[in-house]
Write a structure and sequence with these properties.
The chain is mainly beta. Helices cover about 0% and strands about 40% of the residues. Pfam families: PQQ_2.
Length: about 180
């Protein structure tokens, strides 16, 4: 920040609709950044990735989300408002896979733990997906209470907090990276 001026500004959601309620859009989570890409998602909006240096759109896809994003060296992962988990090629935005078996489970934002994409749900379960194809690898129960916040990754552990007031640390099996 050399002079305090905004370097670039790019919209993630463009309000549209006939009524004020239809035009509600909301950026729902912090963007994810990797050095050259900045990606964000909005409710009643889209998932969009921008060039970090110029702010020009690298790609955009229509997708309404209540949660947030995760990004690795290949894909950008987003949970849509219906609870479907989506993977997009990070450079082109091409849809790679979609896991629809978690629809209507109030799924959290995704988190990357080793080679797994993890989401948590309203019943206190964490679901572990293969990042290659979105297939289920594991499902772990906590205490049956709704997950309070999106899972956090701390080293090789996933931290989950439930509305029952419990915090869980879930580690990877040896060799599961």
């Amino acid at each position: 920040m050399q002079d305090g001026r905004v370097k670039w500004d790019s919209p993630v959601a463009v309000p549209r609709g006939a009524t004020e309620l239809e035009r509600v859009t909301d950026v729902v989570a912090p963007p994810v950044v990797d050095g050259r890409l900045v990606c964000a998602v909005a409710y009643q909006g889209r998932v969009a990735c921008f060039d970090a240096a110029s702010g020009s759109a690298a790609w955009t896809r229509e997708l309404s989300s209540w949660s947030g994003l995760a990004m690795d060296y290949r894909y950008v992962y987003a949970v849509d408002a219906a609870g479907n988990v989506n993977a997009f090629e990070r450079d082109s935005g091409r849809s790679v896979w979609r896991q629809d078996k978690l629809a209507a489970r109030s799924v959290s934002a995704p988190a990357l733990l080793g080679k797994y994409l993890v989401v948590a749900d309203f019943a206190g379960y964490s679901h572990y997906l293969n990042t290659e194809d979105g297939s289920f690898v594991a499902q772990l129960a906590t205490d049956g209470a709704r997950i309070a916040v999106s899972p956090l990754v701390a080293g090789e552990h996933l931290i989950i907090q439930t509305l029952a007031g419990n915090v869980f640390s879930i580690g990877l099996k040896q060799g599961a990276k």
